[in-house]
Amino acid sequence: MKQHIAYKLSLFAYPSAAGGIDNPSFNPLADGAPSLSGLGCSKIIVNLAEKDDFTSRGLAYAEEVQKSGWEGKVEVVEVEGEGHCFHIIDPETEKAKNLIKRLASFISHGH
């Protein structure tokens, strides 16, 4: 994980963060992170891409939110065959368009 761009960005954004990418400022599941039961919303969507290095972290986050006692709705969306930020890198693909539409629907209609 140390060579992943997210790790490098975390060092740039907060170079003195203890634990680097596993600092609670970046990782809501890190030791010392606030309880997920206090999320200030009624729903969350966790978007995952099959080939993304962070897919397992996203799944763990969704599971921990559900186990936390938070009373909202957790929606998990996993897109097969794609990598991190695929919908930003090439937003014209069918999978990217579908994800963007799903996000827009989630935000505007509560999906």
TrEMBL record:
Alphabetical list of InterPro entries matching this protein: AB_hydrolase_3 (IPR013094), AB_hydrolase_fold (IPR029058), Carboxylest/Gibb_receptor (IPR050466)
Protein's recorded name: 2-hydroxyisoflavanone dehydratase
GO molecular function: hydrolase activity
Family named by the database record: Belongs to the 'GDXG' lipolytic enzyme family.
Alpha/beta hydrolase fold-3 domain ranges (all copies): 18-87
